[in-house]
Amino acid sequence: MSANNAIERVNHSLTLEEDLSLHIKGWKTQKVGGLLILILMILTALGLFGEGPLSARKIVNGDITVEYERYLRYQKEMDVSLRLSNQANVQVAIPIEYLDCFKIEKIVPEANESIISDGKVVYTFNVDKTGETILHFYLHAQKPGSAKGTWEVNHHNFQINQFIYP
């Protein structure tokens, strides 16, 4: 049964301008709009705009694991965590082009040394070789748009791709 047959048409003597087909189009548009809003709400809950399974990234290369958020919001703090097993004298090199999009708020634990070399900021940490070491880089997004960079951790490369919402 079509939508036009399901609607009862009433004959009346009032002089009203009514366009039933326009009302039917409006109802269909409302249903599509409601469905789109529902899909957007589900994607948001899953992390499309940050902090969720769609946004969480984990890269493993040997004994080193890098975890970060793929989707960020402008001016929001983000944590890039590095987990290293059985490694001493850790060096983390971050490209300056990548850091143009971020401001480093703090590094935990603090680096023993930081230098700029070959277009990268290189942080050196003296850590105990036994067990697992966890480093946290807390960054603030400074520019909306795409942020890409290859972090180098003890000569292992990690390609980090992020999108910062305005």
UniProtKB/TrEMBL annotation:
Keywords: Membrane, Transmembrane, Transmembrane helix. The chain crosses the membrane at residues 32-49. This is FixH protein.
